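Many introductory courses stop at the sequence. We go one step further.
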Amino acid sequence: MDVYGLVRGEILACRIRPGTRLKIQDLCAQHDVSNGAVREALSRLASEGLVLFEPQKGYSAMPVSKQELLDLTEARIQIESLCIQLALKNRTVDWESAIVAAFYRLSKIPERSPGDNSQLNEQWSIAHSAFHHSLVAACPVMHLLRVRRHLFEQSERYRRFSVPLRRSDRDVEQEHLEIKDAVLAGDVGLSTGLIRDHLSRTTQILLDSGQLDEEESSRAFVLESAGAT
């Protein structure tokens, strides 16, 4: 049983909400694994910034905050832009074809879950990740790509938070189309500008909603009211 992978997926998908206590015994029972396996998984997740450990309080899913969101967004903008610039310098026909294919697949999958319009379709999320990766896949600097992937995954919680709050007039598919066309045209300035706008829109939706204020204020209640692990 891959407890690390299962809990990580639940946190990234926001099925475990930020600030929620992660009780070791509950996770052992839920996944039918040993105490040691759960502790190892939580320690790994803590090192990735997805889980918070506090002495005398134990583990909890990492809270969200305005400052983290702003920092994360700016870091993503800078890294994504740099990776795209380097990818364009290293462009190939195969890379361009992969972008077209990834966009086509993404465009054919409904964004919202068929059973719940307020939630993302998991298949769309997979295709969305693949599309954004395709844009930078020709970047030859592997360490940059690893940093980029880490930032993308960290932002997944925030992106999922924004879905039910999003204005109906936002056309995400059109944003993806414009980014794809700019990258394939080799226009660095337009490509990076569109990436900045694309990422910033999601951030602004969350900032305007006031939801992060609620999450931050509820974190203290969650941690103080729960018993020790």
